[in-house]
UniProtKB/TrEMBL annotation:
GO terms for cellular component: membrane. Gene3D superfamilies: 1.10.287.130, 6.10.340.10, Histidine kinase-like ATPase, C-terminal domain. The chain crosses the membrane at residues 191-211. This is histidine kinase. It is found in: Membrane. Its EC number is 2.7.13.3. It comes from Falsiroseomonas bella. One of its GO terms (molecular function) is phosphorelay sensor kinase activity. Keywords: Kinase, Membrane, Phosphoprotein, Transferase, Transmembrane, Transmembrane helix, Two-component regulatory system. The lineage of its organism: Bacteria, Pseudomonadati, Pseudomonadota, Alphaproteobacteria, Acetobacterales. CDD domains: HAMP, HATPase, HisKA.
Length: 529
C-alpha cells in the first residue's frame, strides 16, 4: 500500500539529488577553470601595464636628457633587466593559458606578438644603454646625440605605441574572459536551481499523499496509545482498512493491548503482595546490617588502637618483672623500684584503655551518659596552672586573659579538664623556647568558646583535619618531637562532641596555631566514659 509510493518517491528524489550533485561538481570544476584562466589573463594585462609604465618613464627620461634639461640617469643593464623580467612574467602566463586551451590559436598568436614587442624593446633599450655608456665615459654631447636619434627618429615612440596597443588588446581579452566565465557558470546554476525545485516539488507531493492516507489511522493509534498511557486498556483501534502494512500494524496493536490488559491485572495482584513482603524484610535487613556494621567497625578500631597503644606499657611491665626475677635475691629497694615502675605503667595503661574506650564508644554512639553542672572557668584556671609547670623548663609563658566568672556547662568535670589539658599540652609542646601560650574564655549567645593560641610551629593546611585522626601526627610535629601518641586531639574532639560541642584548629597569621572549642551552655551531656 505505502511501500511502492515510498520507494518511487525515494528513487525520484535520489535521482534528482544525484543529478544536482553531479551538476554542482561540474559547475565547480568549470568555475575553477575559468577563475584560473581569468587570473592568467589579468596577470598578462598587469605585465603589459608595467611595460607601458616603464616605456613611458624611459622615453620621458630620454627626452629630458636629449634636450639637456637633466643629467643622464641610465645605469648599464638597469633598464634591460627591468623590462626583461616583465616579458618573462608575461610569457609564463600566456604559456599557462595555452596549456589550458591548446586549441585556442589566438593565444599562440599572442606569443608571436609578444616576441615582436620584445624584439622592438631590445633595440630601444640598447640605444638607451649606449647613451648611458657614453655619458659614463664623459662624452655627454655624443650621448645626447644618441638620445636625440632615439627620440626624434621614432624608435622610442614606436616601442611605446606598440606597448599601448598590446595593453588595449589584453584589456579586451580580460573583459572577454570575465564574460566567458560568467556565461559558463550561469547556465549550470540555473539548471541546478531548476532540478532542486523539481526535487522539492516531488517530495512535497509525495508527503501530501502520505499524510492524507496516514492521518486518520495514525490519529486513532495515537489516541489509543494515550489512553493506554493513562491506564485505560479497554481502548481499541477501529475503522481502519485491514489490508496493507498499516492494517497489520493495527491488528497487532489491538492484540497487544489484549495481552497487556490480562498480564497487567495478574502482575498488579502479585506485585502488591511481593512489595509488602520485600519492604518489611528490607527494613529488617537494613537495620540489622547497620547495627552490625557499627559494631564491627567499633570492634576493629578498638582492637587496632588497643594493640597499638598497649604494646609499649606491657613491654615495660614485663621487662621490670623479668629484671626483678632474674638472678639472686636483690635488695628490697630494687624490688620496690621494679614494683613502682610496674604500678606506674599499669596506671598509664588503665588510663590509655579508658581513653580508647571513650573514643570508640563516642564514635559508635554507644557511650554511657552522665551530666552535672561544671564551672568551666575554674576547670580552665586549674589547667592553666598545670600547663605553666609544663612550660617553665623552656621558658614558655602560659597566661590567660581575664576569664569570666561562673561559666557553667553541663558535663563531666574530669573529661573537660582533660580536654583543656590536651590543648594546652599540644600548645606548649610545639612552641619554641621562650614562646607564649594564651588562653581565653568567651561567652557567646548560647555557647561558650575556649580559645588556646600559641606562637609555635603551626600546622600544614592539609593536616588541619587529619590531626584529628587517631595516631596521625603532622610531618612538622613528628620531625621536632618524638613524644606523643597521636591520640590527644582525637580524644579532645570526642570529649567536645560528647558535650554537644566541637573542636577545630586554625593557623594564625604569621606563625602558630589557634585551637577553638565551642560548647553549648548548660547542654545535656551526650557521652562520657
Amino acid at each position: 500500500m505505502f511501500r511502492p509510493l515510498l520507494i518511487g518517491t525515494f528513487g525520484a528524489v535520489l535521482a534528482l539529488t544525484l543529478a544536482c550533485a553531479g551538476l554542482a561538481w561540474w559547475t565547480a570544476s568549470v568555475a575553477v577553470f575559468q577563475m584560473e584562466r581569468t587570473r592568467h589573463v589579468h596577470e598578462v594585462l598587469h605585465g603589459h601595464l608595467h611595460l607601458e609604465s616603464e616605456a613611458d618613464r624611459l622615453l620621458q627620461a630620454a627626452t629630458a636628457a636629449a634636450l639637456g634639461d637633466e643629467q643622464l640617469g641610465f645605469g648599464p643593464g638597469h633598464a634591460r633587466a627591468t623590462i626583461r623580467a616583465q616579458f618573462a612574467n608575461i610569457r609564463r602566463h600566456i604559456t599557462a593559458e595555452i596549456a589550458m586551451l591548446p586549441q585556442n590559436l589566438a593565444e599562440r598568436e599572442e606569443l608571436d606578438d609578444l616576441a615582436a614587442l620584445e624584439q622592438l624593446s631590445h633595440g630601444f633599450v640598447q640605444r638607451l644603454e649606449d647613451a648611458a655608456s657614453l655619458s659614463a665615459a664623459g662624452r655627454m654631447e655624443e650621448a645626447r646625440a644618441q638620445l636625440r636619434i632615439v627620440v626624434q627618429g621614432g624608435l622610442g615612440t614606436e616601442f611605446r605605441n606598440a606597448v599601448h596597443a598590446a595593453v588595449d588588446r589584453e584589456r579586451e581579452d580580460a573583459i572577454a574572459a570575465e564574460r566567458e566565465a560568467e556565461r559558463m557558470t550561469a547556465a549550470p546554476a540555473r539548471l541546478a536551481r531548476l532540478m532542486a525545485a523539481l526535487a522539492v516539488l516531488v517530495a512535497v507531493i509525495a508527503a501530501a499523499v502520505l499524510i492524507r492516507r496516514l492521518q486518520r489511522p495514525l490519529d486513532q493509534l495515537a489516541g489509543a496509545a494515550e489512553a493506554v498511557t493513562g491506564g485505560d486498556f479497554s481502548r481499541r483501534v477501529t475503522g481502519v482498512p485491514t489490508k496493507g502494512e498499516l492494517g497489520r500494524v493495527v491488528r497487532s496493536f489491538n492484540t497487544m493491548l489484549d495481552e497487556v490488559a490480562r498480564s497487567r491485572a495478574a502482575l498488579q495482584s502479585s506485585h502488591a503482595a511481593l512489595e509488602q513482603a520485600v519492604e518489611a524484610r528490607t527494613a529488617e535487613l537494613a537495620a540489622a546490617n547497620e547495627a552490625l556494621q557499627r559494631s564491627d567497625q567499633a570492634r576493629r578500631r578498638f582492637l587496632a588502637d588497643a594493640s597499638h597503644e598497649l604494646r609499649t606499657p606491657l613491654t615495660v611491665i614485663r621487662g621490670e618483672a623479668e629484671v626483678a626475677l632474674r638472678g639472686a635475691d636483690k635488695p628490697v629497694a630494687d624490688y620496690r623500684h621494679a614494683l613502682g615502675r610496674v604500678a606506674e605503667e599499669a596506671a598509664h595503661t588503665a588510663r590509655l584503655v579508658d581513653d580508647l574506650l571513650f573514643v570508640a564508644r563516642s564514635e559508635a554512639g554507644e557511650a554511657r551518659s552522665a551530666r552535672h553542672p561544671v564551672a568551666l572557668d575554674e576547670v580552665v584556671q586549674g589547667a592553666v596552672s598545670a600547663a605553666r609547670t609544663l612550660g617553665a623548663p623552656r621558658g614558655i609563658r602560659v597566661g590567660s586573659n581575664a576569664l569570666p566568672r561562673r561559666v557553667v556547662v553541663q558535663g563531666d568535670a574530669d573529661r573537660l579538664r582533660q580536654l583543656v589539658l590536651i590543648l594546652l599540652d599540644n600548645a606548649v609542646r610545639y612552641s619554641d623556647a621562650g614562646g607564649e601560650v594564651v588562653v581565653e574564655l568567651q561567652m557567646l549567645q548560647e555557647q561558650v568558646r575556649l580559645v588556646v593560641a600559641d606562637d609555635g610551629i603551626g600546622i600544614a593546611p592539609e593536616d588541619l583535619e587529619r590531626v584529628f585522626e587517631r595516631f596521625h601526627r603532622g610531618a612538622d610535629a613528628a620531625a621536632r618531637h618524638d613524644g606523643g601518641s597521636g591520640l590527644g586531639l582525637p580524644l579532645a574532639r570526642a570529649i567536645a562532641r560528647a558535650h554537644g560541642g566541637e573542636v577545630r584548629l586554625e593557623n594564625r597569621t604569621g606563625r602558630g596555631t589557634v585551637a577553638l572549642v565551642e560548647l553549648p551552655a548548660a547542654h545535656p551531656l551526650q557521652a562520657v566514659a
